[in-house]
Amino acid sequence: MEIINLTSAWNDFVGKGFVKNIFTDKQGRKVEAGARLGKNGAEPYAIDADTKQDVCQPPQFIQLANKMEILFNHAGALKPHTPPVGAGRQPDLPTSVTDCTLKCQEANNPLSVLNREFLVEVAVANKRWRAYPNVAPWEARGVAIWLVCVTEQNKVSLPHTTQALNFEDVEDFLEIAKACQGWITFFNSLHAGASANHLHFQSVYLDHKLAVESAPTVKMGEYNFLKDYPASGLVFPKNVSAEELWQAIKKIQNSSYPFNLIALASKIYLFVRNIQNEALPEFPGRVFSGINLAGLFISTDPEELKRVNEQVISTAYAKMTVGGEELGRLLG
Length: 332
Ligand SMILES: [Zn+2]
Fold this sequence. Notes:
Layout: H1 6-15, E1 20-24, E2 30-38, E3 41-48, E4 60-63, E5 69-72, H2 74-78, E6 120-123, E7 128-133, E8 143-152, E9 155-157, H3 167-179, E10 183-188, E11 201-205, E12 217-220, E13 223-226, E14 234-237, H4 242-254, E15 259-263, E16 267-272, H5 290-293, E17 296-299, H6 302-307, H7 310-320, H8 324-331
Parallel strand pairs: 5-17
Antiparallel strand pairs: 1-2, 2-3, 4-5, 6-7, 7-8, 8-9, 8-11, 10-11, 10-15, 12-13, 13-14, 14-16, 15-16
Helix pairs in contact: 3-4
Bound molecules: zinc ion.
């Protein structure tokens, strides 16, 4: 597999002015926000669509003592918030194709993903996958979603399957993750941060290590576990075989536990989630995903930012993930 140059495809896309979204902010202004090309590549911006003046600061990174980071997205904070729903298990996402939020079979619908430009298309071990850009990215240097595509008689379709993995998907995931240098790749299952019930991976540009990569590990039985890290999880080497990774995922998935699979620059992590703590009372309606658990807490809410700190994040991550005996039993 050759290298997939997502950055170059992303920058072309940004250069054409395609990565932007327009919304009415809390003050009633029409705001245009997204990514534009600057001296050092793609950079975030948010302007008043009428006056063209900048309306907020660029995103801000706050480094915590335990190596965790908070990314505060000022542009996201301008958007009116949807009222949070409760804590605990969240409603199931519908599985039927007619309810697919990507509108994957509706070529005549302008909002369908079929009518969006894609960044790259690659053939890996089992299937062809397309990376589509996220046009409201929390990282201006690139956020993409990977979908399976099928070409028959010059016609491209995006088959609708639910957001769950099989062995072939894991094989493809590992190949894509390895090929996307400078980007990290992840899979969030249903009830673990997935926002669409249509099989997808995501990749995001990342130029530094996340906190989880510095965490110690302990080997018990055939698995390596995170140790002294707020979230419980499994650790695999970057060159883990698809078979070995699949054996763990299969057990978790068959037991109906949600999970996050994330391939970082140095290692691969698997977080098993407590479905009863899908959303916590301290973060109502908010479902954290793999990249958050790996050490990047992303916030668009200034009120939330005031009350989060190392302790709050650590407590939350411990409650959301399954470890100890329960995880041991699951993998046994
Ligand atoms: Zn679909």
